Amino acid sequence: MADFTDHSNVQRDPAELSLSEARAEHAALASELEAANLAYHRDDAPVMDDARYDALKRRLAAIEAAFPTLKTPDSPTEQVGGALAEGFGKIPHVVRMLSLENAFADEDVDDFDDRIRKYLGWGAQDLSYTAEPKIDGLSLSLRYENGVLIQAATRGDGETGENVTENARTITDIPQHLTGAPEVLEVRGEVYMSHADFAALNARQEAAGAKTFANPRNAAAGSLRQLDASITRSRPLRFFAYAWGDLSQPLAETQMGAIERLAALGFQTNPLTRLCAGPEALRAVYREIEQRRAGLGYDIDGVVYKVNDLALQARLGFRSTTPRWAIAHKFPAELAWTRLEKIEIQVGRTGALSPVARLSPVTVGGVVVSNATLHNEDYIQGRDSKGQPIREGRDIREGDWVQIYRAGDVIPKIKDVDLARRPGDSVAYAFPTTCPECGSPAVREEGDAVCRCSGGLICPAQAVEKLRHFVSRAAFDIEGLGAKQVEAFFADETLPIRTPADIFTLATRDAAEPLRKLKNRDGWGEKSVTNLFAAIEERRHIALNRLIFALGIRHVGEVAAQDLARHFGRWEALAETLDAARPAALAHRAADLAEAEERAIALGHNRRAKVSEARSVAIAAADVPRGAARAWADLVAIDGIGPVVALSLSDAFANPEERAAINDLVGFLEVQEFVKQVAVASPVTGKTVVFTGTLEKMTRAEAKARAESLGAKVAGSVSAKTDLLVAGPGAGSKAKKAAELGVTVIDEDGWLALIEGL
Ligand code: IVH
């Protein structure tokens, strides 16, 4: 059965995950990251290596990018450090200590440059960057007032750090006094330990029977974060300065200038710091530093690029935890060869058949790997989604020797296959034509990379996944009825839950059950059963968006569910529109099919049969009643709902079994009307704002990002719904239209005054 919570197993493109799969994987990743954070930051006892940590975090970020609603403020992607250890005093950071976005491929560097140029509205003008090694240690913020070191704080959670002032004073690279420094100066940089000092420390620890450290970074962290400063003094820590926090006066006009100023003040700065004219020069420095890495005598794990001009850095600003003006270009992860023992198929909620490689266990980057994703049928055969060869067209077979990598992704992938070691009797992998869980035909639609089980609710794998989704946090979220319980109930003989509606009859069935009552079973007691039934009862009242989302319809994620709920307000309105729109939905599909077939014919494929099928559907559906056309238009006009979502919804509602299950469920519910929520309170919250003309103090992207962060909706054109037009010089038709409609018009300064201080 599918197990997508086991994220160390298989990784699929986040865009292919259902929300429940994404949520399950997200939860598992988040808890693993939280545990790793605690182990690392609080206990100085890391439970995983860096590459894995980074990979987990990247995967989490990728999932959040595909499913933005999963990104809550407490997500590990929003945390830049870890929990604070007890025993240290706390120091709030005046300026947050942030993290860096990671880049892995050479192209990421171009993207970084492109993004910055776009954000700044910078054409081909010069844009220089600094490049410097990314030191693998732990960051520290040193506060100097009137040239005297008064405080040293670790990063902590980015907002509040641990007070390690006494410990920092024992580090010789950290000056206690500065001459000629601004009145207030917070210097930030990395505390690290050299390879030689690390080896000597471990030897001493071993001789004394004390614990040894896994790597120099752990040794540095463990040494700095000692409650007894005399222990820190005995440990050879070093410090490189590379950034700053609170300042009473700017250090310089450029990053390079600021680094030189810090060096002049007596800090160690990295001698490999270079000024670069653009992405090509950055890559050259990356290669240079990579080559020198082994001989540096301390650990680095990449190269950090920063916009050199500090005024531009200020304009670029920050995302939630990372600056837009910097990026860490990490060194590549490890590769390893192993044998692919078996190819297995997992079945997801929407019936997607995902192939998984079961491997002979192998260590990659310090982690034992025994599974890798094979994505889909084409990938196994050596083709990408566009039919282009991957691995030069080499297919993957059971018994093959495959090269595994973990760069950029949590779940290992297969980079290559060694044909020289392919067993003589090996056969090409035949992708199943039936579902391995229920035996229904597995169908791959035109243009879809994924092969799906057509069994719908008949398929136990799909049914269980649907139920797991139904009870998930953003769906019905029933206390005491999680994924595990739902799986157990699914298999239960006496009190089965096979469809969502069964959840709401559980209490009555239990009451009528003479022998195997729930309260008498292992793991259940009187109280937990009472609580469960109460929790279920409570959920009979359900918000419309939750209900729509909970149905687990393909392409209908949390955001689409919200959009639909916002638009229709009531369940009946949604259901009526979908029913009314059905003929138009079919006509849309037919037109799509015909178009695809025409394209296929143009490409010389022989698809006669399909074409005629498409035509007959088209003819049948050509005479779409006016009401149906109107209902369909209403549906696809909803912001965020396109034909793909609309068609998927329409199919689900028109499928007799699915509709019966939905109706049964809704019969037990009192669906609440959708209530709009206001996210942030500001003068522009909930307002629709349009920017027009030339903005002189910010680019459109900056203006838009700022307005949205304050809860405004930024639209591209003026309409009766527009609340505010911000017009710069050269504003034309939009300003005219705004005047006609009586929309408030302000200039850029007016806008800045309005949002000032927010
Ligand atoms: S700049 C606002 N430069 O990497 C960003 N960070 O992954 C300030 N790090 O938290 C950071 N070497 O602990 C910067 N040359 C360098 C660095 C560096 C190591 C660490 C730092 C940061 C982490 C982000």
Q: Could you walk me through the main structural features you see in this protein, from its secondary elements to its overall organization?
A:
Among the domains are: 105-330, DNA ligase/mRNA capping enzyme (D-amino Acid Aminotransferase, Chain A, domain 1, 2-Layer Sandwich), CATH 3.30.470; 476-539, no CATH class; 546-672, no CATH class; 688-755, BRCT domain (Rossmann fold). Helices cover 39% and strands 18% of the residues. It contains 26 helices and 24 strands. It has a 5-stranded mixed β-sheet. A 5-stranded antiparallel β-sheet has the order 14-13-12-15-16, with no helix packed on it. A 4-stranded antiparallel β-sheet has the order 5-4-7-8. α24 links the parallel β21 (688-692) and β22. 39% of the residues are buried. The site of 2-(butylsulfanyl)adenosine has 14 residues, from β3, β8 and β11.
Q: Could you list some keywords that capture this structure?
A:
758 residues, alpha+beta, 18% strand, D-amino Acid Aminotransferase, Chain A, domain 1, 5-stranded mixed β-sheet, 5-stranded antiparallel β-sheet, binds 2-(butylsulfanyl)adenosine
Bound molecules: 2-(butylsulfanyl)adenosine
CATH domain class name of the domain at 105-330:
Alpha Beta
Strand proportion: 15-25%
Assembly type of the shown chains? single chain
Distance between termini? Answer: 50 Å
Q: Give a short account of the largest sheet.
A: 5 strands, mixed
- Which structural class best describes the helix and strand composition? alpha+beta
CATH architecture of the domain at 105-330: 2-Layer Sandwich
CATH level 4 superfamily of the domain at 105-330:
DNA ligase/mRNA capping enzyme
Q: Point out poorly predicted stretches.
A: 1-9
* Estimated radius of gyration: 30 Å
Give a count of the beta strands, DSSP E runs of length 2 or more: 24
* Average of per-residue pLDDT values: 87
Shape: globular
